[in-house]
Every structure is written in structure tokens, then in C-alpha cells.
Amino acid sequence: MHHAPPKSVLTRLRRIEGQVRGVSGMVEEGRYCIDILTQVQAIKAALGKVEDELLKNHAAHCVEEAIRDGDADSQRQKFTELVDLIGRYRN
Q: How far apart are CA 64 and CA 88, in angstroms?
């Protein structure tokens, strides 16, 4: 079963969307590179927070549900998904 992420994730993503549009405008205007890079770093940090929140949601709902249900196959699948995700972080 899939659980909808918290509404705060959508709020953050909409804010990030606005930030990206702002950076696009800065590039079009030929703004100073350091100012643009500062905004890009802010966007990356905001995306990191979204990622953290989604991961917490996954653990709190999907993984917890697999553990609670006692379904060994589902538990292995959820564990493998997390290991694969963490492996992608390192690359």
C-alpha cells in the first residue's frame, strides 16, 4: 500500500519550483555568477529536505507496515529498496 506524502512536501516543492524560476530569470538577466550559485545551493538544500521528509514518510508508513504485517517478502523488498537508495546516494 502506498501512502501519500505529507502536504508539507508539496508546499516545499512549490517553493523550490519558484526558486528555480527565479534562478532561470537571474541567468537570463546575466546576474553575477556567485549570486546564481548561491541560489542553486539553496535549491539543493531545499531538495535535500524534501528527500529527507519523503524517506521519513517511507520508513514511518511503508517499512513499518511491512514489519507489522509480518510478511517476510515485503520486509525484504522494503529493505532492498532502502539499501538501493542509499547506494545511489554514495555514487
A: 22
